[in-house]
User: Fold this.
Amino acid sequence: MNEELKEIKIRARMMPGAVTYDGFLGNDKRSLSEIIAADNKELERFNRYVEEIADRMKYFTDATFDVFDNKVVIDDIYEVESTSSKGNLSCPYGHGGLFRKYETTLTNRKNNITVKWTAMTIHLIEAHHFFGGKGSHYRYEPETLLKALFTEAERKK
Ligand SMILES: [Zn+2]
Assistant:
């Protein structure tokens, strides 16, 4: 399959109502490779890798799964909560495997930034370097994510 055709198929699965109600593209008209390249450039600016962001999200989500009411405060800074719902999602890139439907909400007490993500958000960032189209439900600018997920000291490296 050529790249153009591949992208058309993936984009179709990212549209509202295909895999999720809201879809993954928001009102972004750029191609997937343009979106990914722009975010990648942003990460480079902060000297960070997608794996670090994905690992950090997994760490926070796992911490909520370990406690009774799925609510936890970590390091006195991060208020984290997960809610799960029935069902599962498949990757719009056509990966096998289904992802649990949960949503994690994190608020950073130091800067009051709140971000939310799902298992799918983490997978798209980690495996596809895709943060979502502008205006889509779970999209945050890489800078916002970094500010929410890491302390200022940790961000300077
Ligand atoms: Zn995938």
